[in-house]
Design brief:
By secondary structure, the protein is an all-alpha fold. The protein is about 70% helix and about 0% strand. A two-stranded antiparallel sheet has the order 1-2. The two termini are about 50 Å apart.
Length: about 600
């Protein structure tokens, strides 16, 4: 039996360092107040469980090559080394008087967690070393399992952890319905999942994952074998079911999740635009938030009833709206597209990092101009533009007044009884309509001659130009189209918030949009949607974890990029590019030479 002791010890040191890190930044003690499983497993101790299991899995995967004994021994030894490193933190906390002065989170509460509330320090340290070693051993054993049971166990454990973390939010959502209340009482304790609830969640999600893993391909084959007419009918049934689910989703999830979905939708609209620049045309644009700001300010100026609104400027009548939201939308899109073309003109010959720097400068120029005293009389400066009215649907208010109150919510969930789009649930439908419209336009462009020109431009500008593609027209079209989508998103943002301020258009917005395109899968329209859900929706769901939510989010992003560098839902071209050379090349055999013939 040959073991790579060097790697095993290295992974053990990483395990210990991870536990020390989450301890000293305060995560362990702060999360210990929350239970994943009520009175069984706190969220703080769940962090230790995740680190131990995960590193044991990695040790078996990287060092044992599927061999049982090296994997189990390596996992156990690595965990023991990690536990020993974590126990050194306990020793330092008890022997070094200045430890608390340097690390404020090195508190007695943390000591109690690490030593499992043992009175004897030595016994507590042995508990810590043994626990992490056993967890790492279990993680190694999970890695040795066949693919289907391994995925089932991981899915079940992940579901228990996620549902236990989101217990408060899920309780509120399920409490909106009678059946949901009964299910919530069974699943949840006072804090986190109940013991029976945790077992049930583990079994259900494990079985669902196993069923999907074993039957999904069979189901796909059966659908593909259907006659064309039946396959079309089946696809339309799925589309109808999806539309019904999207229609009633705000009523199911409530206002908080609806607000998160609105934010996800706004970033999806921007992502669809930037996906044209980066994913299709290969133009690295880091100043995309500038077009978002232009769309928002254009809509704000056109519709605001404050002093800066055009109604007051043109007619001298404060408190009135110069035009409606529905007229401001196409104007905002047009203005943003014009600015996109203007940006594209001076950067036509720039590529890569140089283009990124120029576009970044463009976004900063927009932000500084909006903040400047020079444009303050027109754009409000740091005080922004206020009193932006909500979109109105006049005919809806008229029709709703003719219907019973019990029917209005179900027939017209996208507006108030007065016909105003004002709540998150109302803006959800506007965002969904916008995403469908922009997604359809992006899909048609991607599969058109223009889209093929963009993809050729992304691969090699010189070759594309040699093939007769007009680089100037293609680049300007990409910049203008992407900017138009961002302007559309900005106009909806202005109406939804009711005011616009310069601080809403910082560099972090551009970085988030670029990240969601890459994380979802560059060049993929479904990837943009998935990327927005992960990049924007996940931090909002983790908001209850206060200052640690972005730390958790960053760690998850690192893991995701290591596991799936091509993104969650990449285009086929992107997947082939990143996995080129990872699959064996099959060389066709030379045809046999028959006597008297040349094969």
């Amino acid at each position: 039996m040959q073991l790579n002791w060097k790697k095993i010890v290295q992974y053990g040191l990483i395990t210990g360092a991870a536990i020390v890190f989450v301890s000293l930044v305060g995560m362990l003690e702060a999360f210990d107040a929350r239970d994943v499983i009520f009175n069984v497993l706190s969220l703080g101790r769940a962090l230790i469980v995740v680190i131990g299991l995960g590193m044991g899995y990695v040790v078996a995967l990287r060092t044992a090559r599927g061999k049982a004994v090296p994997a189990l021994v390596g996992g156990f030894v690595s965990g023991a080394v990690g536990g020993a490193v974590a126990s050194l933190l306990v020793v330092l906390m008890t022997t070094w008087d200045g430890m608390r002065d340097m690390f404020i989170n090195a508190s007695p509460g943390l000591m109690k967690i690490l030593t499992f509330s043992q009175d004897s320090l030595a016994i507590g340290m042995l508990y810590l070393i043994g626990t992490i070693a056993v967890l790492s051993l279990i993680g190694a054993a999970i890695q040795l399992l066949p693919n289907t049971p391994r995925r089932m166990i991981i899915a079940g454990l992940g579901a228990v952890l996620l549902i236990g973390m989101l217990q408060e939010l899920l309780n509120v959502m399920m409490g909106r319905f009678g059946t949901g209340k009964s299910l919530a009482r069974f699943l949840f304790g006072r804090k986190g999942l109940s013991a029976y609830g945790a077992i049930s969640v583990f079994i259900v999600f494990s079985l669902l994952n196993g069923l999907w893993g074993t039957q999904s391909q069979h189901a796909k084959n059966r659908v593909n074998q259907l006659p064309a007419s039946q396959r079309t009918t089946f696809n339309w049934m799925l589309i109808i079911v999806g539309i019904i689910l999207l229609f009633f989703l705000p009523q199911i999830v409530g206002p908080y999740i609806s607000q998160i979905l609105v934010l996800v939708g706004l970033y999806t609209l921007m992502g669809l635009g930037l996906n044209i620049d980066i994913g299709l045309a290969g133009l690295l644009d880091l100043g995309f938030v500038g077009f978002f700001a232009i769309g928002a300010y254009t809509a704000a100026l056109l519709t605001s009833t404050a002093d800066l609104g055009l109604s007051n400027v043109i007619n001298g009548q404060s408190g009135a709206s110069y035009t409606s939201f529905w007229v401001a939308i196409p104007i905002s899109v047009l203005v943003a597209a014009i600015f996109g073309v203007f940006l594209g003109i001076p950067v036509l010959r720039m590529r890569g990092d140089y283009l990124a720097i120029v576009t970044l400068g463009f976004a900063e120029i927009i932000r500084i101009l909006v903040l400047s005293n020079f444009l303050q009389p027109y754009l409000g400066g740091a005080q922004g533009i206020l009193n932006i009215p909500k979109p109105e649907l006049g005919y809806v208010g008229t029709v709703e007044q003719m219907l019973p109150a019990s029917v209005r919510t179900y027939l017209f969930p996208f507006a108030s009884p007065e016909g105003i789009i004002k709540d998150p649930q109302h803006f959800y439908y506007l965002i969904i309509f916008g995403c469908v419209l922009i997604g359809f336009v992006a899909w048609r462009l991607q599969n058109s001659r223009i889209g093929r020109n963009w993809m050729a431009l992304r691969e090699d500008e010189d070759v594309a130009e040699a093939m007769g593609i007009n680089l100037i027209a293609a680049k300007l079209m990409a910049f203008g189209t992407g900017a138009a989508f961002a302007g559309f998103s900005g106009a909806i943002f202005a109406a939804q918030v009711g005011s616009v301020f310069p601080h809403s258009f910082g560099l972090i917005v551009s970085i988030n949009v670029v990240s969601l395109v890459i994380i979802g899968g560059s060049g993929s329209i479904p990837g943009v949607i998935v990327g927005a859900l992960v990049l924007v929706g996940l931090p909002e769901l983790l908001r209850e974890f206060s200052e640690f939510r972005m730390l958790i989010y960053g760690a998850l992003l690192i893991v995701m990029m290591l596991v799936k560098p091509e993104g969650f839902w990449p285009s086929e071209v992107r997947r082939r590019e990143l996995h080129e050379g990872s699959e064996p090349i099959i060389v066709p055999e030379e045809p046999a030479v028959v006597a008297g013939q040349s094969a």
